[in-house]
Amino acid sequence: MNHNPKLPNTEYSTIYLLGHSESIKVYDSKPDLDIWNAFNKGDEIAFNYIYKMYVTVLFKYGCQVSRDHNHIQDCIQNIFIDLRRKRGQLNEVQSIKAYLFKILYRELIRKSNKSKEAVHQYPEKIPNNFSIEFSQETKLIQQENSQEKIERIQGAINKLTCRQRQAILLFYEEGMTYKEISVAMDFSEVKSARKVIYRALATMKTLLQTKSENEV
Amino acid sequence: MDLLSIYNMKYKDYDIDHFITDEFFIQWIKNPNENNSHFWEKWMEQHPEKRPLVSKAANLIRSVKYADNTEFTDRMYVETFEEILKADNHFRQLNPISPTKISTTHTKKVNSFFPLRGIAASLLVLFCLWAQYEAINFKTDPEPIAEIVLVKRSNPAGKKSIIDLPDGSRIHLNANSEIEFPREFSNDIRLVSLTGEAFFEIEKESRPFIVQSGETKIKVLGTSFNVNKKENGSLYVALVTGKVSVDTQNGSRMTLEPNEMLVLEDGGAYRKTGFDAKEVIGWKDKYLVFKTSSLPEVRRKLEQWYGVKIELKGDFDTKWTYSGTYKDEMLENVLRGICMTSGMNYKIDKKQITLTNPK
């Protein structure tokens, strides 16, 4: 018992009701541009919405770059803190997800390499970045595509470059458009995103064909 | 020519490579919405011969997955959110002159333009926040902070009330309960303190709304929930909408989803359960609900609800329970209902009720 009413009680159990579900009701059907502008103007509900919608996928994406979960969590925290501080001066954003992916990727790399030059080399230095798992879900498909074939595809995927795997994952796992991929991967033109994807698929095809011919 | 027929022409000659490089197709597989579903379902109807190809392409797309699938836990969700908000305050509180110092990772250009007016306002807000916190927490202080006028509303047994707050939020205050709040909220926070039970419908806005119940603080931004601190010290927080996370004294943390209820025992133990909305929050809509309630529970509920004293005469089966729901019903009708199924008799003498068991 605290007998001195003047003593602040430091052992509060704190219950946070974040009101995040409410934010969904307000912003769910609005275009990204509007949500972003509201956030830029200081609307906390818009912030809650952005946080709720993207923090989980950001973390997942971060896990494809780094194995250090605390590091990823810190980086996510930092990018949101930074965005909040820059409210009022933020540029317009057409795809919030693609933009957040871009700045998280930058932050992850910058934080793990102090020198700026390393930024662009980094992805190739760690070949395990953006590992792809090729797995089929339904039994039907497994009958159609033999286990052997799946393994072959898996093997071909692993021969792709890190940037190609990154693009493939953004395309198929995240369901991003070419435009969004170009934002997330810091390409100046959408065309570059298309090129990376096409080239990756072409490489895979070649690899698969060569292999099957060898086997025959 | 409408869009659909253009697409029809385009997709008619598609082979699998085309499908797996078509972003509109992938959107439908990965993020189906009304628009793309409508299109593709119709298209498949018109081109049934393409079905096997479409399903093959869809399967290929779905098969590509992240090799690493670590989950972002609820705990991380809340932790990160709190850290982000904390950094805001930290930023305003500690770095009024040189905000760039706080973070080595953020750009200086933006921060150095932080306007002086904003700093002054933040300090003022912090002062108000502190002042209000002091005023509410330490109401026995002989010199309450000027300007903060606290309003206290309390209900005796038998009376419920609705209180509208200056921010548009509404509080349903149950009988035997008391709520205290400032006549005007500060710029940064909405803080009320509660004894007993209340249902809150909080207007969503940027200032957090904090309910203090004993030593527990419940923080929300805009949501509806019920808080009930029982006489034995247990605290029940039932969430209708919104999201909750709970920090207990021993440092563990958990989250509450809508339709979940947190029970915090006096000793610090806690558990999470579902709840029957009518049973827990029906009181605000005048529903008196008994759900396999024991005799002491029935007695306590009736005393609180109608503001009466109930005396028990005779031997009562300890295993006896009662279930029943009454809406806006007179005490006599409720007593009649209870006695009808249990064989008890009741006697009303103004505010004094006697329940007897003839067996």
UniProtKB/TrEMBL annotation, chain A:
Classification via InterPro entries: RNA_pol_sigma-70-like, RNA_pol_sigma-70_dom, RNA_pol_sigma70_r4_t2, RNA_pol_sigma_r2, RNA_pol_sigma_r3/r4-like, WH-like_DNA-bd_sf
Origin: domain of life: Bacteria
GO biological process terms, semicolon-separated: DNA-templated transcription initiation
Stretch forming the signal peptide: none
Domain RNA polymerase sigma factor 70 region 4 type, first and last residues per copy: 151-203
CDD domains tied to this protein: Sigma70_r4
GO terms for MF: DNA binding; sigma factor activity
Keywords in alphabetical order: Sigma factor, Transcription, Transcription regulation
Family, as annotated: Belongs to the sigma-70 factor family. ECF subfamily.
Protein name, as recorded: RNA polymerase sigma-70 factor (ECF subfamily)
Organism (species): Algoriphagus antarcticus
Taxonomic lineage: Bacteria, Pseudomonadati, Bacteroidota, Cytophagia, Cytophagales
Automatic annotation (TrEMBL), chain B:
Alphabetical list of InterPro entries matching this protein: FecR (IPR006860), FecR_C (IPR032508), Ferrdict_sens_TM (IPR012373)
Gene3D superfamilies assigned to the protein according to its UniProt record, in alphabetical order: 2.60.120.1440, 3.55.50.30
Top-rank taxon: Bacteria
One MF term in the entry's GO annotations: sigma factor antagonist activity
Residues annotated as domain FecR protein: 158-244
Occurrences of domain Protein FecR C-terminal (ranges): 287-355
PANTHER family the record matches: PERIPLASMIC SIGNAL SENSOR AND SIGMA FACTOR ACTIVATOR FECR-RELATED (PTHR30273), PROTEIN FECR (PTHR30273:SF2)
Name recorded for this polypeptide: FecR family protein
